[in-house]
Design goal:
The protein has 95 residues and is α+β, with helices and mostly antiparallel strands. It is built from two helices and five strands. It has a single domain, classed as RelE-like (YaeB-like fold), CATH 3.30.2310. A five-stranded mixed sheet has the order 1-5-4-3-2. The chain is globular and about 35 Å long.
Length: 95
């Protein structure tokens, strides 16, 4: 099982997710711990690259972007949720 390592901005973004998106995000995290290679590559021209993406939430508006580090057994997470309306006042864009 791989360890999930969130980017600093992810914690704030996840706290602001609407409930229906939060449940879908949790489902993605479960999958990433075990079968992270099942996501789509970030760049279709590099299907075997270590950076992947996984859409989630209503209308697939949220997207988890992640870096797979096989030797360390880690999946580093970023979250881009531009299409989801936050439920909390704290909403930080990725840099």
């Amino acid at each position: 099982m791989y360890q999930l390592v969130p980017d600093n901005a992810v914690v704030a973004q996840v706290a602001a997710l609407p409930d229906d998106a939060l449940a879908a995000y949790a489902d993605v995290l479960e999958v990433l711990q075990l079968t992270h290679w099942n996501g789509k590559p970030l760049h279709e021209a590099n299907p075997d690259g270590a950076v992947g993406r996984w859409n989630f939430g209503p209308s697939q508006a949220g997207q988890v972007i992640y870096l797979i580090l096989d030797e360390q057994q880690e999946v580093h997470l970023c979250c881009w949720c531009s299409g989801l309306k936050p439920r909390a006042a704290l909403w930080l864009p990725l840099r």
